[in-house]
Structure formats: structure tokens, C-alpha cells
Amino acid sequence: MSAVKISIIGAGSAAFSLRLVSDLCKAKKLEGSMISLMDIDEGRLNAIYNLATKFVNEVGGNVRFEKTTDLERSVMDSDFVINTALVGGHRWMEENRKAGEKHGYYRGIDTQEFNMVSDYNTFTNYYQLKFFLDVARLIEKVAPNAWLLQTANPVFEGTTLIARETNIKVAGFCHGHHGVIRLVKALGIDPKDVDWQVAGFNHAIWLNRFKYRGENAYPLLDKWIEENASNWRPTNPFDDQLSPAAIDMYRFYGMLPVGDTVRNGSWKYHYDLETKKKWFGEPWGGADSELGWAWYNENLKIMTSIIADIAADPNLKILSIETYERLFEKYGLPKEMLSEAIEFVNPSEMSGEQHIPFINAIVNDEEQRLVLNIMNKGEIIKGIPEDVVVEVPVIVDKNGIRPEKIDPPLSKRVVKFYLYPRMVRMEMALEAFLTGDRKVLEEVLVRDPRTKSFEQVQAVIDEILDLPFNEEMKKHYRN
Ligand code: NAD
């Protein structure tokens, strides 16, 4: 048994924190561990503390908690730090987006070629990148042996920034590769017989290896497309793994885009709502349309209320299905969402988040295969510089992270047409952030197909920097 201290920064993100608590309760070799829950929002912090305590009491786990609004106290002497904070929350992102739309930038100025994911802001994300570096530098000072599990977005920009600028041990975490499981389920084949690899950048990964019982499994996908693609309908805005957009990208690039990569195509799929509906299905047009994102925000609000209800009412058991059935009825949520919403209730299965398996592998030397974001040292992906973070399958044990050989390599089109331009966006975002040079922000927009004049570029940047909460960002970009 090896007890560790795990600090969760932004722990008020309750569903995520509960998944980690639930996973930790199932990791018997980590018994006695302590989770330090840290958030600047005391209300959210108290709610997650109550819920986590309730959960452990009900399940009988051996996990301790502390709660704090003090970042340094939380990070101090931690073995693992998980950063999932969103500075300014979804409201700031919405306001930035609104200002962009007012000046002709549909879905905001952060919605760029190969970067359409709504919560993956790169250019208005000054506060998020600054906070990432603050946390990393604090780790250097008060917990220099700790691992940082970078979970908050933008994972690609953020993990690259931290790995370049600090000396801490860092890896980026995302669950986007679960798209492979959705694909395998749709094809009706047994996941145990599937040999797969994905590779690329975060939210930009591609199924480079797909074998079923030792044979190339792409022909099974081709057959599915022929027989089923025309009848495909999404069950929710995020259900896009086999959407027309995914299939079109597969046809062009020669490999299937996986997970959020499908949201990150070119403007071909995103010009306007009608275009989005054509490629991501009716009625929402995918997660990144005005309708899909409204659906997401509405459900997020309801889930937050459900979680607050459970935290506040001692009679509502967190592990009881009846609790959720009752609250789903109260908030008018469809029953189909029940299983996804309450995955942490399942006492036997892990949530699918990779954090606790990673910690267990490092601490207890129990080898794990995960998909992580790490520096491209040794050119794991050929053709990508070694100081850029890539998302690849890795083996983790007490010696750390060992990337798998990417075999077969990514197609030439994926590397040159998709990863190269996405990498340039990342470099521009980091250059803007590190230098405070407004001209870099301008240059990004000059290259944006939605831009009609340089006056438009100046006007939108001014409007965003003039938003009251962007005062500090405005000072940063005064040159
Ligand atoms: P949220 O706003 O619901 O929660 C974020 C929490 O961060 C809030 O409780 C907030 O109070 C807290 N916070 C804000 N500023 C803070 C600070 N300075 N110090 C400590 N805590 C602070 O947001 P969310 O929807 O839960 O998303 C959080 C982040 O995680 C986003 O960047 C999102 O894109 C990312 N995310 C990542 C993955 C992944 O798999 N990597 C999956 C989902 C979401």
C-alpha cells in the first residue's frame, strides 16, 4: 500500500473530481491517500468536499480529503497535481466569443482552422496559460518531485508551454481516444480483439493502426460506411465519431480522425449553422454550433444543480440510482443520459479518466497503457519538432513514461496538411502569450478566412481587450 498526496486544482468541477475520487476508492494499492481539493470558489469547494466525503463514507473507501482556497498549501509536498481549473469560467469564454461574433467572426476569434472546439481557446486564453505557468512554477518551488497532470484546456498549448518553460515532470491528459471504443462498438466487434494506436496532438489524433484479429480493420469501417452511413443520426451534439464530417476527413486524410479531432476539421464543415448540420447531423449541427453549445451549457447547468442538491441533502445517497432518477425527473432530463451522468456510481468499473491509473502505475509499478501528451523527444511522430507535445500511446510504470513506436506512421496528409498548420497556430498562441506582442494576435486574424479588412482585425481585438475582465490581458498586449 502506498499513500500519496494528490492536489486537484479547480476541484469545484464536481463531476470530474468525483470520477477521480471514485477511481481512487477502487485503487486498493493507493489506500490511505489524501486528496487536497483546491478551488477559489468556496461554494463549489464546500459542495465537492461534502460530496467526496459522502461518497467515501457510502462506499467505505480509505481516502482522506482536505479543502483549501490556498493554492500553495494544496500543492505543497504533493506527489501529483491535477490542474483542471478554468480561470474566469465559461462566462468569460462566452463573452469573448460574443465580441468576436459581433465583428464577423462566427463562433469567436478562437475558432480557427483545425481548432473549432468551443472550449479550446488559444488566443483569448491569456489567463489560462498564465495560470498554467504559475502552477508549474509553484510546483518547482514547493513540490519539485511532483508530477503535473495537465487537464485543463488548452492541453496542447499548455503542456507544450510548461514542458518548454519549466523543469517539472508534466503530461497532458484527455479522454479523446475513447472515440476508438465508440467506433469498435458501432462496428460490433470485440474490443479485446482490436489492436489500435492513435497519434497526433491533443484534439488532433488519428487512428494510424486499426487491426482486428491481426488483420487490417479499416475494410470493416468501409463496409459500415457503405451500409449504414446514410442512416446515421447523432444521439447528442458530441456524438460525431461516425458523422459525415468524420467520414469525409477519413476519405481525404486516409486515416480516421478520433474524438474531438472530428470537431476540428477545416472551415468546410463549419461555415455556418446549415453547413454544420449537414456534416454533424440534425438538429444541433455538432457541439460547436450555437445550438450544440447551448445544449451543452444547459446540461452543464442542470448537472451542477443535481450535484448541489446531493451535496446539500443528507438524505440523498450519492451511490443510489434512485437519487438520480428522482433528480433527472425533477430537472426534466432524458433517461438515456442517466448512465453517462452517474458513471462514478458504478463501484466496480473505472471511470475511463486516466489520472488514477497513471498514478497507480507510477507509484505501484503496475504497468499501464495510456494515451498521454508528452514532448516529441526522439521524434515519436516523425516530422514534428522534438520540443512540441504530441498525444500518443505510452506505457507507464515506476520508471515513468515510455512512448510506443508509432506504427504504421501517420499519413503524409495528416502530418503535412493537418498537424503542421495546427502546430503553427500553437506556436503563434505561445509567441503572443510569451512576448505580449499584439502584432502576433493581429497576424493570426489576418490569416483567418473570415477577415475582410485590417480594420476588422483591429476592431475585434480592441473590443475583446476592452471587456472589463480583460484589463490585465490588455496591459499584457499593450505593445
Ligand atoms: P468549470 O468552470 O465548471 O470548473 C472549473 C473550476 O475551476 C471552477 O470550480 C472554478 O471555480 C475553478 N477555478 C477558476 N479559477 C481558479 C483558480 N485561479 N484557482 C483554482 N480554481 C479555479 O469548468 P469545466 O467545464 O469543469 O472545465 C475545466 C477545464 O477542464 C476546462 O479547461 C476544460 O476545457 C477542461 N476539460 C478537460 C478535459 C480533458 O479531458 N482534458 C475534459 C473536460 C474539460
Describe the structure.
With 479 residues, the protein is an alpha/beta fold. It has 18 helices and 13 strands. It has helices spanning 14-26, 42-59, 71-75, 89-102, 126-142, 155-165, 179-187, 218-228, 244-253, 273-280, 290-312, 321-330, 338-341, 355-364, 412-435, 438-446, 454-465, 471-476, and strands spanning 5-9, 34-38, 64-68, 80-83, 147-150, 169-172, 194-201, 204-212, 215-216, 257-258, 368-375, 389-397, 400-403. The protein is globular. It binds nicotinamide-adenine-dinucleotide. Nicotinamide-adenine-dinucleotide binds at residues 9-10, 12-13, 16, 38-41, 44, 84-87, 89-90, 119, 131, 151-153, 155, 173-175.
Radius of gyration: 22 Å
Bound molecules: nicotinamide-adenine-dinucleotide
Helix content: 40-55%
Number of helices: 18
Spatial strand sequence of the major β-sheet = 3-2-1-4-5-6
Distance between the termini: 54 Å
Structural class: alpha/beta
Count the E strands.
13
Descriptive key words:
479 residues; alpha/beta; 18 helices
Can you summarize this structure?
The chain is 45% helix and 14% strand. It is of the alpha/beta class. Helix 5 (126-142) crosses helix 6 and helix 15 (412-435) runs antiparallel to helix 16 (438-446).
SSE map:
Layout: E1 5-9, H1 14-26, E2 34-38, H2 42-59, E3 64-68, H3 71-75, E4 80-83, H4 89-102, H5 126-142, E5 147-150, H6 155-165, E6 169-172, H7 179-187, E7 194-201, E8 204-212, E9 215-216, H8 218-228, H9 244-253, E10 257-258, H10 273-280, H11 290-312, H12 321-330, H13 338-341, H14 355-364, E11 368-375, E12 389-397, E13 400-403, H15 412-435, H16 438-446, H17 454-465, H18 471-476
Parallel strand pairs: 1-2, 1-4, 2-3, 4-5, 5-6
Antiparallel strand pairs: 7-8, 8-9, 8-10, 11-12, 12-13
Residues 9-10, 12-13, 16, 38-41, 44, 84-87, 89-90, 119, 131, 151-153, 155, 173-175 line the site of nicotinamide-adenine-dinucleotide.
